[in-house]
Specification:
The protein has eight helices and three strands. It is mainly alpha-helical and 228 residues long. The chain has a three-stranded parallel β-sheet with strand order 1-2-3, covered by helices on one side. The radius of gyration is 20 Å and the shape is globular. The chain folds into two domains: 154 residues, no CATH class; 36 residues, no CATH class.
């Protein structure tokens, strides 16, 4: 089977993500995934439109596979500290004095998941995006800090694993922030290639000056336990 490239900074949502959680989601006797209540509310409102859109997408994917001999590459970019509506929603941007025409164009040509929200914070949002499940389901609902000896369990099914099973080559580049135990690292969560940081810019604050200025309380290097 041909392998094709996905460069990813964490993935997207909807039905494909739901399939990623099949290994750990609560299932009925027939094996159907049982979702949280919000899903069924949105499905009732949009189910028929989703089904029609899925047919169009399947047709486009089939045409691309016929033309290029493989499915398209998938690139997912995720970043922190952006308020709801800062990008992609011009009406909200007007109130805040922001303009992002290029990203707004991407939103208009794609899909806006304005109701698909998770807990606020680096770790829970990344866990939800990687697994398709609310972060509380994987125990990743707190923002991970230094040397916590905790992380996303190896039994979680990630989108990288799902895509690998259908022939994609997967890569992760950037901020991971899903734990500091070996099984939680991206190269052990389905990614063939990974270049990542375990945390974020907090590491650069671990100095005596930062501690003295109350910028990094309790994170001074010689206060931390031994790094395993």
């Amino acid at each position: 089977m041909k392998r094709f490239k996905i460069s990813s900074l964490l993935i997207f949502t909807s039905a494909l993500l739901a399939s990623a959680s099949a290994g750990t989601a609560i299932a009925s006797e027939k094996g159907k995934i049982v979702h949280d209540a919000e899903y069924y509310v949105v499905e009732a409102q949009n189910g028929e439109r989703w089904a029609a859109e899925d047919k169009v997408i399947d047709q486009k994917l089939a045409e691309l596979r016929k033309k290029h001999g493989r499915p398209p590459n998938i690139i997912h970019v995720m970043w922190d500290d952006t308020a709801f509506g800062d990008v992609g929603i011009p009406a909200i941007q007007k109130v805040r004095g922001l303009e992002t025409p290029n990203i707004n164009a991407l939103a208009e040509e794609g899909i806006m998941f304005t109701r698909m929200v998770t807990e606020v914070g680096c770790t829970p949002s990344r866990a939800a995006s990687a697994t398709g499940r609310l972060a509380v389901r994987s125990g990743m609902y707190n923002i991970g800090m230094l040397l916590e000896s905790h992380g996303m369990g190896g039994e979680e099914v990630t989108l990288a694993e799902v895509l690998s099973n259908v022939g994609y080559a997967t890569a992760f580049h950037g901020k991971w922030h899903l734990g500091d135990i070996e099984e939680s690292y991206p190269h052990n969560q389905g990614f063939d290639e990974a270049f990542f940081t375990g945390y974020n810019q907090i590491l650069s604050l671990n100095t005596k000056i930062a501690e003295g200025a109350n910028a990094s309380i309790g994170l001074l290097e010689d206060m931390l336990p031994k790094d395993p």
